[in-house]
Amino acid sequence: MKQSKMEDLRHSKRTEMLVLILAVTWVFFFTMFAQLLEWLMEQTLFESTALFPDMRWLIHLAYTVLISFPLLITSFITQNSKLKIIFNFWGIVSFSGFFLTQGRFTLINQANLVSLFQIVGAVIYLSILVIFIRKQTNDHKQSFSIEKKELFYISGFVAILMIPWVLWGALGSLFDSALNVVAALSISFLFAFIYRNFFLKKIVNYSEIAFPGKFLNGFILFISLIIISTTFGQNGQQWLLVLTLPFSAWLISGFFNNKTPGNLIPTIILLASIIAFPLCFFDPDEMSLLIGTQNGEIFT
């Protein structure tokens, strides 16, 4: 009897791992495909002299549907509590793409308008989630305290992370920089709220399904940051974000204290800094200098 239970447990763990691997493969495949298609579309719009139809919005919507719907549906039908929490978290993160589609209808060089649409989309989605959470749990309290030790560490990390961007890029106008910072803050608030309420808080409330080890927790956050980088960034932003933001997952998960899941400030400061640096120090219109096809181009 005991041996039979052990075999059932092993079989359940194998099934859990297999389903998780399939889901991660699904996200990776469609993320790479969407990134490549958007890049090709943006390069075509950059270099084409003819009126080529802008299909960025369609690529973005297709990616959002192919990621969010399967994850959310699987989270509803699975009986595994761990997978239910993970897929629900990833699905809600990817659902943000529906609210960040408006920027894909702008011209390729309208960076300020893109930032405004990013801010509006993030704020609208965050407002909907806040209303939903309050109706579900009557949770009206948010902790915005931060310890001096945490503030010291975060300031150090932010300063280190800023060095390559200062050396490589250059700030635009004050208005451009302000818009980018607000956009970074808005998406950071949104992501931190989702992470707190749809992942971390559920693990704290149900300790019996807590995930062992910091690596797995960081990896779950890593996948969600890949998704948010793809849905949020555009006109060259998504390439820089997907190559930088996800790798901060383990750093972010370390500052997000499991015992006080209401504390959003450390995560928001880190996320906003990591997102704002490429947005502020990099001009999306200059992406053609990196990936253009003309001979003699020099990146300075």
Notable traits:
300 residues, mainly alpha, 11 helices, 73% helix, globular, disordered C terminus
Q: How many separate helices?
A: 11
| Helix/strand structural class | mainly alpha
- Average predicted local confidence, pLDDT: 80
Q: Report the β-strand fraction as a percent range.
A: under 5%
- Write down the Rg: 20 Å
Rounded to the nearest angstrom, the distance between the terminal CA atoms is 70 Å
Task: Give the biggest beta sheet.
Answer: none
> Element order, helices and strands?
HHHHHHHHHHH
Number of strands: 0
Global shape: globular
What's the helical proportion of residues? over 70%
Can you give a write-up of this model?
This protein is mainly α and 300 residues long. It has one domain (2-291). The protein is 73% helix and 0% strand. It is built from eleven helices and no strands. The protein has helices at residues 2-47, 56-77, 81-94, 111-137, 148-168, 174-205, 214-232, 237-244, 249-255, 265-281, 287-291. It is globular. Mean pLDDT is 80; it is low at 258-262 and 291-300.
Write the layout of secondary structure elements.
Blueprint: H1 2-47, H2 56-77, H3 81-94, H4 111-137, H5 148-168, H6 174-205, H7 214-232, H8 237-244, H9 249-255, H10 265-281, H11 287-291
Structure summarized in a few sentences:
Helix content is 73%, strand content 0%. It is mostly helical. Helix 1 runs antiparallel to helix 2 and helix 3 runs antiparallel to helix 6 (174-205).
